[in-house]
Write a structure and sequence with these properties.
Helices cover 32% and strands 23% of the residues. The protein has 221 residues and is an alpha/beta fold. It has one domain: Rossmann fold, CATH 3.40.50. A six-stranded parallel sheet has the order 3-2-1-7-8-9, with helices on one face. The protein has a three-stranded mixed sheet with strand order 4-6-5. β8, α8 and β9 form a beta-alpha-beta unit. The longest helix is centred in the last third of the chain and has 14 residues.
Length: 221
Amino acid sequence: MKIKDYKYIFLNFKFLRHIYYNIYKQKFLNFKNLNLNSNSVVLDIGANLGEITHYVYDNYKCNIYCYEPNKKIFKILNHYFKNNNKIKCFNFAISYKNGFANLYLHNLINKNSIKYSTASSIIKQKDNINSKNFYKVKTSSILEIINQFNYIDLIKIDIEGHEYEILPAIIKNKNKIKRVICELHGNPNKNKNNFLNNKYKNFIEELKEIDPEKKWFISHY
């Protein structure tokens, strides 16, 4: 697979990945010292190229399940891990139900399909996406995914605003999930994706009740 992109090249080789981890320390900070091991179960929801999966596996050798709807990015993701029987990759989006959805792509996706793939979203209103540039992707219910496991040590979520549609089911299953690390969109302080401001505020208030010590849920990025 010949792809001219620095991130792809760095992630493709273990010795380069460790350089990458050191260059972008902040990106991986929340995934250090997680007390995971080779028996742990990790879900990477919105895996993209698998940066977090690479880091978690390199450090803990966990069982990891990756979910990525972008068909081009999924091919690269699957290529990375095709010979690793502890990492499973699935080409669909995680949502609140099974079905299909439009995956909207970044405004600049044609300039660099790898770099700008991280902004893809199934939310049409999201900032920086082109509402006319999309294709259909399969969606799978978060509840069905959770029910496949007896216990989940970590769920990492990066799904560009759609997190608020799956977090209720995750909270209901809090007793079988050790930790969640999630990118939250709609923070009023950042003045981006303002249509999600209320969902962000409501979720933060809910967290004060269910996770007052801020140990179960970690807001990422």
